[in-house]
Specification:
about 575 residues; globular; 14 helices; alpha+beta
Amino acid sequence: MKIAYSVIVAFAMLALRGAFAAHEGGAFEEADRALKGEVSVVGIPHEFPDGRIDWLFNPTSKKGPFNPEWTWQLNRMYFWTALAEAYSATGDEKYARAFVRQFSDWFVQTGGVPPEKDFNSVGSPWRTIEEGLRLLRSWDDAWHAFSKSPSFCGKVREDFVKSAHAQARHLLAHSTNYNWLLIEMSGAYVFALNFPDFPDSEYIRREALSRFYAAASKQLCPDGQHNEVSLDYHLVFYSTAASICLRAMEAGKGGELPKGFLELLERGAEGPLAQMTPNFSFPCFNDSNSFRASRIFGTAAKLFPSRADFLWAATEGKEGAPPAGQTASRFLPYSGIAVMRSGWNRDATYLAFDVGPTGANHIHQDKLSFTFWKGGEELVFDDGGGQYEWSDLRSYAISGYGHSTLLVDGLAQNRSSPRVSERPIDAGWRSDEKEDFAFGVYDQGFGPKELRLARHRREIRFDKAADEFSVADIVESADGKEHNYTLLFQIDSTNVVLSADRRTLSADFGRGRKWALAMTLPEGAKSEIVSGRLKPTPAGWYFGRIGTSPNVHPATTLFVKFPPTKSLNAHTRFRATPCLR
């Protein structure tokens, strides 16, 4: 039993490495770029002269749009993992010397020890999320790899340990909230395992674990979704929890884990499984990036070997079995995500409908928005809001204007609460072999002043025999006045055609795509398509990211406009059709 258990931990640790990977590609290639001072942060490359990194630099301050994340995330030292892997594989001291040089420069430039004030400010290398991430990942990798190197000795080694200890203590003194707290405490925990000889290491280990478990238990909704309602930040939850679990087991301290820790990890895999798209990725609600399911289920399948559905998701259908149940459709009643699908096959029809709270953080104005897929192709999109730059496109992407929502007198929805639902949401959810159904209601503010202008109820019905979605938008004036209502639909194509009578729409998604989109539009509306507009306000843009790289391109916003009225009952039908080429 002990041997089998250790094998599970070893394989799960390998899977977890993949879950944390922030930079894909060959480790040697990335390590060789790091030797030369070539880095890419939030998708923006920069080369430092002579390979000497300026850890306080930000190229976006000279060539915008300004993105404060560049300096912050540079100080995650993601490329030290590549240097460590290259050194472990080759024993070539050039990788160790590069690490020592870069760490020494960083120590001199930053002082090596966190300050007590302004550590989370723009330009600071001491933001607590970075401290946690580097202790958890890049500094952990560097310590285990370069401890064997003769280049990493003497004062530089002492400075490294001194700084790591100071950061762990700093994290306990200044822990924050949301996913940051999970990162901060997991970093402090891993430090304490790596350096058990400090007098306070046991305290750091136990305190970090206690705080982590309390926060993770609160942040994971009963339906298995992290309460920020972003699969990207759910991955943060899952990766940090799995890292603590596996490192504790590896160090022989599994007995210190709270009783419910493994249950938390199992439930935390069930939420993403319910939302997984037909191409084994995830929808991009709130700030998010669509990543491979294996980044969660590679670890989950090893931790829970009896779960054939986790193995199925980890191997993208090659092994295991898809989730069981009366239908493949699912509703997450606390996070408010209704997933309608024709099946678990790769060509399945899929729609994810957001009827829930804003999420605890990384909020988008997107209630009642949805994303529609056929097979591996997203036709009506939610792009996840891109990078965290300061730009008009970023503001657009997180607003109601950048989602498939409703405008009232040209104003988009705008709400700040509820952030988290404390009880199950009534969405009228029904799912059987013939039909899926759900509804949601938006009756909060519109525009900057959060004016209560209208009550919007959206119902979505999936006719499985017809393989068609019907969307009913029922709007009532909240102030007794007539209003101009406009429905928005976001389509990831610029080859979009309205019929002469503007009652139907067809969208072709380009060469190499298998599916087209056909829409039947509501009666009495005037429809308009807009692609790649920047002025007077943005419209028709996909503003997303792939991993750490930006994914920005023109798309189409369909505006469906109605004459002034007090009430509206509009019906739109969506269907995917095979491309004819």
